[in-house]
Amino acid sequence: MSDSKIDPLTDKAYALYNEGVMHAVNKKLEMAITLFSEALKILPEFEDAIYNRAVALQNLGRLKEAIDDFRKVIEINPDSIKTRIRIGSLHGYFDNFEGALREYNYIVKLAPDNSMIWSYREVVLQKLGKYPEAIRSHSKAIKIDPRYAHAHYNLACSLALMGDVQGSLEELRFAIRMDGTDKYFRKALEDADFTPIRHIPEFQDFFYQIS
Q1: For residue 39, how many C-alpha atoms fall within 13 Å in the half-sphere facing its CB?
Q2: What global pTM score does this model have?
Q3: How far is 3 from 32, CA to CA, in rounded Å?
Q4: Which of 88, 122, 146, 210 could bridge to 103 as Cys pair (CB 3.0-4.6 Å)?
Q5: What mean pLDDT, rounded, does the chain reach?
Q6: What confidence tens digit (pLDDT) does each residue in 145-172 have?
Q7: 27-44 burial, b if ≥16 CB within 10 A, otherwise e?
Q8: Is the CB of residue 151 less than 8 Å from the CB of residue 135?
Q9: What is the DSSP code (8-state) at residue 180?
């Protein structure tokens, strides 16, 4: 039997954290934040407590505070993929697409076979007007997961922005087929990314045939 003893303060920090998680699950986010903060007074580098407080702050719309906490997580664990995804998403929300791209570039080095991250990266590149690079990024996502409907849809958007009607419609057709619903059909009807080709007869015929 081990003679090692559990540090009572560490034990208390974990108890506060676990209680905070329960409140977060039950959508009592303010209470969860309070409990995570109390745990962090005891263990300032408690990574899970910082991360979950950041998520709660984000869910409450306190986005700048959330970013500060996510950055604290990265100081402790630079390779935390889930944290970098959150930071990238928040950068995108604030139209800081260069910042988002830095995060996604870091992540694809850690997880080169993650099709979702290649797809996220494509969207940011598209926002930056870097369409050829965006297309290469989404082609990578599709190569990893050929049935990734959202990747096909976003590739269709990039091709439309470049004026490639046939390529765009082919990818849009794949997206609709892979998804199995009319979600992408309806989305494309209003998506501004298709504006450059919306007036072209082939584009209009495509929607007529599918509808």
Answers
A1: 27
A2: 0.85
A3: 34
A4: 88
A5: 94
A6: 999 999 999 999 999 999 999 999 999 9
A7: eebeebbbbbebbbebbe
A8: no
A9: -
What does DSSP assign to residue 200? S
Query: pLDDT tens for residues 43-52?
Result: 999 999 999 9
Give the residue from 114, 167, 160 showing the smallest Cα distance to 137: 114
CA torsion sign for 129, 130, 131, 134 is negative
Residue 162, phi-psi category: left (phi > 0), alpha (psi -120 to 50), beta (remainder)? alpha
Taking the alpha carbons at both ends of the chain, their separation in whole angstroms is 71
Contacts for 175-181 with beta carbons within 8 Å, 24 or more apart?
175/149, 175/150, 176/149, 176/210, 178/147, 178/148, 178/149, 178/152, 179/149
**Length of the chain in terms of residues written:** 211
Q: What is the pLDDT of residue 211?
A: 66
For the beta carbon of residue 198, count every other beta carbon within 10 angstroms. Answer: 15
Closest CA to 198 of 155, 159, 167, 165: 165
Q: Please name which of 57, 61, 54 lies closest in space to residue 94, comparing C-alpha atoms.
A: 61
**Are the beta carbons of 16 and 39 closer than 8 angstroms?**
yes
3-state secondary structure of 43: coil
Output the six-digit token pair for 16: 């506060």
Residue 113, φ and ψ in degrees, nearest 5: -100, 15
Find tokens 């910042």 and name the residue.
Answer: 99
Residue 130 φ/ψ region, left for φ over 0, alpha for ψ in the -120 to 50 degree band, beta for the rest:
beta
